[in-house]
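note to self: the first set is below, dont mix up w the second
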Amino acid sequence: MPAPSFGITQAPGTANYFVDNTHSAATDTDNVSGTATRPRRTVPTSLPAGAVVEIRGGPYLLSSQVTWTGGGSAAAPVFIRGIGSPVMTTTGTTGEIVVAGQYFVIDGITFDKLIVQMASGLHHFALRRSTVRNYSPSSNSSAVNVQGTDIVVYANEVHNNGDPTGAVEIDIHGVKLGVGDERVWVVDNHIHHNGGDAIQVGSATSAEPWARFVYIGRNTMHHDRENAVDIKQSRDVIITENDMYGYSPRASSSGEAVIVHNNPDRVWVINNRAHDSARGIVSTGAIGFYVIGNLVTNIHEAGFSTTSLSDGHGIMARATTQIVAVNNTLWSVDGGFSQDGNAPADCVNNIIGAVSAGGHHLGWGSTTSGSASLIRNNLLQGTVNILWAGSRYTSLSSFETSTGKGQGSVNASPQFVSSTDWRLLAGSPAIDAGYATSIGTPHPVFALFEATYPGAGAITRDISGRLRSVLGAQWELGAYDQNSSSTTVPAPLTPSNLRIIR
């Protein structure tokens, strides 16, 4: 994903505003900015360019709604920085911190029982290294509600907002994006035990302009009431390098780690780990659903049906067009990959195995879809089980003879390093077994990504972050390239820019 222009690397200068409500000399009277020895008791609500607010002490009891406006510039951002994670909370059951302005960073604050609500028109804002917890209103909401452009939500913990085990649906999401949001990064966060999704983008019916250019990366998400990532009406969403687990069926969710629906445009799910959930990566309505390089394991749904094209599946699509599933590893799943619609789907270079008894490696609901699909160069472990428009095939040869599909596929053990390490050992039949349009040229989805997002970089690295290499004629199958299969840990890089503090 591309790096944001603002929000990650910017660092505050020397503090010029001081807040500490526990200091014996603290006062707001005739004390606009405070000093270290005579700090303010409250955070100023409007801050000029270059302001660096240092907050100590706490907890701070706020009224139901407080607005912080940062009037920063690219050359002189505004920072509100917590020292020791000071707690902002409310005198009521819930409250609201409204964030307005531009070129503004909030770093190191704990928000308790408060929603962080971004105001319309906000741009170049970052919420960093903060905690948002215990926000539980009585109706649908979110703990961090994004509005604006060039927004960064980085390295926060967002947890226990709403009821993650509630029988009645009251959606309290961890992070929510919606209409007009553009260029938003939600990265390196720990989001868990919320009463809705960890991250939701768009709504079932969104006004234009839909949220666009959304990057969801390197987050750990688990045990929320519904899903880790829920993509609704939006465009150009990239979900990459996340770890997602602990999702179970509820009255309002089937327990998918990733769910895509309501026909968003171009959703990319790349190099993620999705595991220990009822379903893996699912689209029930999208225009462009690209699932590449993911490791999906331990996906099991109570009472799964062996004829179902959705129960307990690692990757599943229906009512979706432009479906691509390339170089994924699906292991210990009730079902592998399925397409339950009429659109074609590319299912190429995947490893699928340890499928539940009676479950299928591959499933197509209609011959209309299947006959137009690219299905080849997959490794299927165990007894072959392919569901094809109501018929079953139990060997790759019979499948290829009857349908003309499955060329280059193998029925074998992939020879992983171990039962919990899905890298490939030397000699694995998955090595140098991938499909390519020509020698050394991988599936065209990789070029499509670079052409669509020219500043985002290539996606030709495997799930371990190593560049996929062609050791023989073609790439490997599955999420790991053989180049990263060595069990020897490489030596660390020589450190630089070190100094000794005495």
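second set (the one i keep forgetting abt)
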Amino acid sequence: ITHTTLTARNSTRVDGGRYVLSLSNSGGTTTISVNVKVLDRPGPPDGPLKVKVISAEKCNLNWNPPLNDGGASITHYIIEKRETSRVTWTEVEPHIEAISYKVTKLVCGKEYIFRIAAVNKYGVGDFLESEPFVSQNPFKPPSAPSTPVASAVTGDSVVLTWERPESDGGSEIDGYILEKRDKDGVRWTKCNKRRLNDVRFRCTGLAEGHSYQFRVLAENAAGVGAPSESSEYIKICEATYPPGPPSNPK
């Protein structure tokens, strides 16, 4: 025999490795080792697939390249997701070359699973799945600010000031909402049309002679927190001052 051929059809990357060829004749036996590398689709990315929640609508994914690239460079990754209540997967990103990705547009309160596959020139590899996780904020709404204090009362306005909440809930305070309630009414209504960034606000458009209570709420990325304690009733009227001393009689 001058040569021989062994053909292994439908090989995959698990068929690669060290093969030993034994040759025998009347004079004895000899062996030859052959290292075989099968070119194939890549293996799954090296886990775990880590999910870090940023907010109720966003999360970060991190993973590692496959331990077996199939004999060809990894060109990109495919990311898919599904809700645990469903069976179908939806595409998140069809072509990402990095090993991390920020996912957006999640639905608060939904439970998700992500999966990622590596791609080389021979095709799409096996998927690596994450553990299920619920999309929710890793922080909570802020605690209540201090009770607002009134000053500079006029016939149609008053200045309110307050202290920041003791706890921001783990997320920066985005602003405040100041509310008022007429003594003759039951409903709380907003004093400010836009979110307040300061801890001081002049509330205008009040009815002279009426008495009002005020309260303030803080807001962060998780939502609006609990209201402060209500202020005492403040009567809206022009300030009056004691008369000055008489002038010297003539």
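remember for set 2: The mean pLDDT is 91.
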